[in-house]
Amino acid sequence: MLHLIDSAFFAAAVAVMASTGALVRPVVSFSPNWATISLHDSVTLICNVGSTSLLSQRYSWYKDNERIKGEEQNFRIENTEEKDRGNYKDNEKIKGEEQNFRIENTEEKDRGNYKDNERIKDRVILQAPPSVYEGDQLTLRCYTPNYKAKYTTFYKDNVNISSSSTDTVTLVASVGMTGTYRCKTLLQLYSDHYSPYISAEIVITIQGKSLCLALFLLDYGINVCRHRL
């Protein structure tokens, strides 16, 4: 059985307060920055507050509206399990930038004799960032959690965009790269035999450049990030 953390409904944000009482709007990022992560992998949530003159900060992490352990800038989930399912968000008083993820169950089923190029659910997983902006690096990974693989090909709208001996390709994102992606790789199912398998398709939308503004109101400094589409 194969379990996945898939994109949607896993919201993460953090509340940050300084000794001066100033409020800083945080932006949460993830490492590795995949929208789909296999169960039993590890993921780190990172609170990015940008440059600030505040000397001391306290980080508070919440899951399903309840405070959880963790007062550091980084919150790491080791060996992800079903119990990690839930909504992770900020303090109600301080709204942070949210990233969305959901833990899902998927099960690989034996079907006996497989034809070449037939996609077997979850043997090959195309991983991509949860959000991509114009000018960012777009990294794609053709992930095979249970098998050795070689000779990977990436497709956009059924057109070959990259062939590689590794499972990863990095491109510079542009709005014109919005489309439907999939990957194909050779899996070693037996000691001396490789067979081609194809991932499920995912839609990747390249958004406009992000615009970050720093607003300073009276004695309160607020760092705000907005995305210009």
TrEMBL record:
One of its GO terms (biological process) is immune response. InterPro entries: Ig-like_dom, Ig-like_dom_sf, Ig-like_fold, Ig_Fc_receptor. PROSITE patterns: IG_LIKE (PS50835). GO terms for molecular function: transmembrane signaling receptor activity. Keywords: Disulfide bond, Signal. Residues 26-114 form the Ig-like domain. The keyword Cell division does not apply. Residues 1-29 form the signal peptide. GO terms for cellular component: external side of plasma membrane. Residues 94-115 are annotated as: Disordered. This is Ig-like domain-containing protein. It comes from Xenopus laevis (African clawed frog). The lineage of its organism: Eukaryota, Metazoa, Chordata, Craniata, Vertebrata.
